[in-house]
Description:
By secondary structure, the protein is an all-alpha fold. The protein has helices at residues 2-21, 25-37, 41-53, 57-69, 73-85, 89-102, 105-117, 121-133, 137-149, 153-165, 169-181, 185-197, 201-213, 217-230, 233-245, 249-261, 265-276, 281-298. The protein has a domain at 1-118: Alpha Horseshoe (Serine Threonine Protein Phosphatase 5, Tetratricopeptide repeat), CATH 1.25.40.
Amino acid sequence: MRAFRARHLKDMHAAARRADERGDADGSNDLGALLERRRDTAGAEAAFRRADERGHPVGAFNLGLLLERRGDEVAAEAAYRRAVARGHAAASNNLGALLERRGDTTGAEAAFRCADERGDPDGAFNVGVRLERRGEQAAAEAAYRRADERGDAHGAFNLGVLLERRNDDAAAEAAYRRADERGDASGAGNRGVLLDKRGHEIEAEAAFRRADERGDADGTFNLGVLLARRGDTAAAEAVFRRADERGLPDGAFNLGVLLGRRGDTRGAEAAYRRAAASADPELAWAATIALESLRARST
């Protein structure tokens, strides 16, 4: 199978090179993609430049990506602008992100809107984020819906957050489900919260586990809460430890509680110290009190 794949790639490379040598823009772009896959960055850049010079929108976009990755934002911007002028939607979104990093919020929003109007899911999502920041909730929801309809996991998740905020839990859960099914960690976690709220513990646990496996600290914490509630303290301790290791102060606090209960005073004290450093004043206060109580019991 590997030998067949290698021959196939070799044939593709030869065909793309012949097309490139004939002056075919598609061939130049295809060659660039194949060379980039081989980690021949210099060769890929040269091929993408030829595609760009021949008027290829994807070639200009790919050149922009390559230039941006190596930190040449001025040249990347120029390449993205050429791709945008040729109708490339994703290039408009990337241009918006580049302009935003530079502090040109007006130019960034115009670029994101252009991407959205051309059907780009990331562009719709980014438009939604900016509208939500300005308090334009209805317009933000519409933008997130467009992103969601185009298959964007982040758009589905943010739509779910807006819907949950206005207490439309059924629609929010459906949006989180779509985000979850597209691999979004926070979507799985928030879906789990709503399932648990409705008493669907088995489905909630499965959702929390997916969030945990994808590295979501909140999902990990909620899985620990569910396990502790069930009485599986050993498993809950391991899960709270992961949440703590992922930087979640609530995970550190709950880990401290379980460690203290089983007599690991030193471990509990260390966990409470991490929780006490939280930016959340209520949690920091609770951890400080727990720490003082632990010390009083041990003296």
